[in-house]
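The freezer alarm interrupted the setup, so I double-checked each line after restarting. Inputs confirmed:
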Amino acid sequence: MATTPSSTITAHDAEVSFRLLVESVKDYAIFMLDPEGRVATWNRGAEIIKGYRAGEIVGKHFSRFYIPEDVEARKPEQELETATTTGRCEDEGWRVRKDGSRFWANVVITAVRDGHGKLRGFVKVTRDLSERRRVEEKLRRSEERSRQLVESIKDYAIVLLDTEGRVISWNSGAQRIKGYRAEEILGEHFSRFFTPEDVAAGMPEHHLKLAAAEGQYEDEGWRVRKDGSRFWANAVLTAVRDEHGALTGFAKVTRDLTERRRADEALRAAEEYARLVVDLAYSAFVAIDEDGVITGWNRQAEITFGWPRDEAIGRELAETIIPPQHRDAHRSGLRRYLATGEGPVLNRVVEITALRRDGSEFPVELTISPMRVGGKAVFTAFVRDITDRKTAEETLRRSSEALAAANTELESFSYSVSHDLRAPLRAIDGYAQALLEDHAAKLDTEGQRLLGVVRENAQRMGQLIDGLLRFARFGRQSMTMAPIDMTALARAAVDELEQGSERALPPITIAQLPPAVGDKTLIRQVLANLVGNAVKFSRGRPAPDVRIGGRPEGPEVIYFVRDNGVGFDMQYADKLFQVFGRLHRAEEFEGTGVGLALAQRIVHRHGGRVWAESVPGEGATFYFTLARP
Amino acid sequence: MMTQGEIEVLLVEDNPSDVELTLRALQKRNLANRVVVARDGVEALQLLERAEAPPKVVLLDLKLPKLNGLEVLRRMKSDDRTRRIPVVVLTSSHEEPDVEESYRLGVNSYIVKPVDFESFASAVAEVGLYWLLLNHPPE
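Predicted 3D structure, all chains:
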């Protein structure tokens, strides 16, 4: 069997084949450099990657593939030198295409020597790594972004712990919530965020153990800030594992829930407060829904109506606390409100009759407030048992009636006193006078004196009756309160006394008086009585002197009328203001004993006080107080 | 000149002592010539009804049997025939409601009788003088 030369692969054949192979490789630029670095061969991959065709680049120095900075730094020469001395030089870096664009390249330069070791040139293999680099760059940026994101999160503390629980990363949220800066906390054990009690109970380790076992552990509780203050935290601890499932650490995300917890507590407190207010109210609280079914019932309602809460809830209100005769009105009123929104008995105090469980009826006062809760109408009412008040009102009404009757009786009594008692007195006086006029001749001196005494006493009794009636009248008279110019009023009272007096009055000095509030007519009567009194009791003194003065004191004004008259013994001061109370015998000083009693009565009706001070023989001072304007 | 049966003063008073003392007071001033006394309100209105000429003045007590003084006053002042006759209320009481009511009904004077006879006599006499001698009623 003959063999053909074509079937034998010669060294030459192999070389040709290899060259063809190299030339056809597209993904690698493979070319040779001569010992000086000039391009000697060029393959298809080099053409694709670098953009030069073989004809335009062969014979050119390979430094043109480098960026200007690298050329400047003599990097091409250095790489050739490295390859020459070590046989090989590998590098990654920016290279330049024909069009000036750059690409990231992996370059391997291998020195080629002949059988004698003489340098023949270099083989340079270049890979375009731009794509890979772009992917890597993207990944790197994404990681950076995640890191920045985590760091920038302020509302969550995001902390990485190593497997032992030591802090290995710290974001701004962690700094904000816990108060530590990264540099002071990195490497520290996370147990310092726990309260001493929790640390003592082994909570930090327990949490790590649970997270490692379950993958994640969530907890709410108090944590401690750097400054020692506590905050209510929600913490989620997640175990971090590598691709082989080995534990590499923990991620801990913590939220500060103090505010929310505070708000929750405030809400709970408000609810508790509202519940207690309703439950402890002294009024019965009753709530019903749209169907008139009882939904609310407090303790007082149990007492008032006799139904325990658990029995009352769910019953129809009408059947429970409304007397049978009012039930239809209640039901139709409820329907009308739901249909039209009209409710004449709502939002105001209503008095009605209610029903106890034992069937007894009693008066109540209540206010019904309609409200919408969750889109449904609800009616709440506070109900008070007013049996006692009604009884009291009835008692009061009866006593008022009795009082009014007594007053009417008293009025008719004083009317008849003035009519019926004065008429016989007038007759006694009149006939005594007639006797004196017509029959004086038949009477001796003693007889005439005795008739005079009869007349005197009749007249005196008339004065007493007049005084008594005047006293009663002033007590009843209605008062018109207004600011009073007391100086002018005292002047007017004194002027009137002067005009009405037969005898000249002693000098009366009126100081500038502070104003007061009162009924002008009545206060003028007080001044007239006190000044009249002072004039009367200082009459007959060598230098009678009457002074009127006043000074503000606190919310009132104290006025006084002072005389230098006979005065009185303080021992009997309480008798001064009694009706018909007299400290002097009638023949010494005239008067009915009503003036001071009347003055006191008027001042008392003004809410003021009256009192007197005296030293017998040295005069007396009468004080009274009135409110300031 | 005054004719027979003409009344100058109609005194309406049930208390005989007051009647006597009032007449005595009027007599002192010579004013008691034509005084007719009615003992109650009904009699007073009957006398006014029958009189040929109206009296120059009526002295009217308030507290009277049958018809009281305020009622007599009210009827006189609401009747055209008696409306113009001057009426002087002479009463023991100084009761504000009575005073007000009397003036509301159109009384011409209101006098509270003092206990003191002399004051009483002069009050009656002054009223008598004023209305009998000085006042000129509308013709």
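Quick read of the result. Chain B touches chain A at residues 15, 17-18, 20-21, 24, 63, 91-96, 113-118, 120 (CB under 8 Å).
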